[in-house]
Amino acid sequence: xxxxxxxxxxxxxxxxxxxxxxxxxxxxxxxxxxxxxxxxxxxxxxxxxxxxxxxxxxxxxxxxxxxxxxxxxxxxxxxxxxxxxxxxxxxxxxxxxxxxxxxxxxxxxxxxxxxxxxxxxxxxxxxxxxxxxxxxxxxxxxxxxxxxxxxxxxxxxxxxxxxxxxxxxxxxxxxxxx
Length: 178
Hints:
Helix content: 25-40%
CATH class: Alpha Beta
Number of helices: 5
Distance between the termini: 21 Å
Number of domains: 1
Radius of gyration: 16 Å
């Protein structure tokens, strides 16, 4: 059963050392390992280390980009949105979801690498907590390795199903979580 733990924002900033955690994750730096759900030549999708709900996922371009639209051609943007759609559908099919939030959040003062947050809102969360509870938290859910592996496996299975040849996908692949 996951437990709530406080987020030490200063410690998180120090751990980044002014660098880009997404670029370090993409490069394979073990200090920035996450449970990877999907990756291809365009994008990477992985579970958040600081989730406020189960299956809170981030999707980012593999190449460092900072502007959510300005650093992409229209075709590049549509390509990454296709990944966001497929990952979002896999999340929706893997965990109970009343609504799937998709937001591009970030900061030039924090992590500049553009990324999208895919947040499957659990059913039954009171209305007044739905939108702001996901963004205004100083604590996160901490899952055991086993819970993370089980969740990752379910989501990756849904992604594999959505990427079958008859689904219209070309050349996408999934990878094992590390």
